[in-house]
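Reviewers of the previous submission asked for a worked example of the structure-prediction workflow described in the proposal, so we include one complete record here. The input consisted solely of the amino acid sequence. No template or homolog information was supplied to the procedure at any stage.
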Amino acid sequence: MGSRISRMLRKPLETGRRLDKVLESKPVVAPKHPSTRDTLERLKSETEHKFKERDSKDDQFLHKLKVLRVESSDLKMPQSPDARKPQDRSKPSKSTSGGILGKLTSREMSELFAKNMASPSEWKASTLAQHYKLSDHDVSNLLKYYSGYAVVEKGQLPMPLNEVKFLD
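From that input alone, the workflow returned the following structure tokens.
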């Protein structure tokens, strides 16, 4: 009983809606016109045998359902000793020819830089452009302006002009 009172205090709007719904009167069915009532009674008497037939139990059909039996079994799959087995568990590498022409994925981009850094004499801009189906200009700009990393010597780092002093 205490939970009902505390619920009313915690959620007054929800409780009020519930009360309104319970107290709300149900709609009254409109009265039927005498001509409609006669038509409904006539149709009901004409179709009464169809409703009785639908609701009655058909013993013959029920007996057929009881006698019916379905048996199933799994198919035996032929096992061949020389079936192909996977050679290794590694994922197949993604081919570069399957992508959109003129666009590179991030994986292909890192491969492009890795090939160029590993052997720049073998993987020149023109070779990479043919391999990845890009224009020579785009690949040369990629190699010129973007890279995975760049090594900078310590002496080349810019030094601040004035030393910053902290307040004590």
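The CA atoms of residues 84 and 141 lie 46 Å apart. We consider this example representative of the routine output the project will generate in years two and three.
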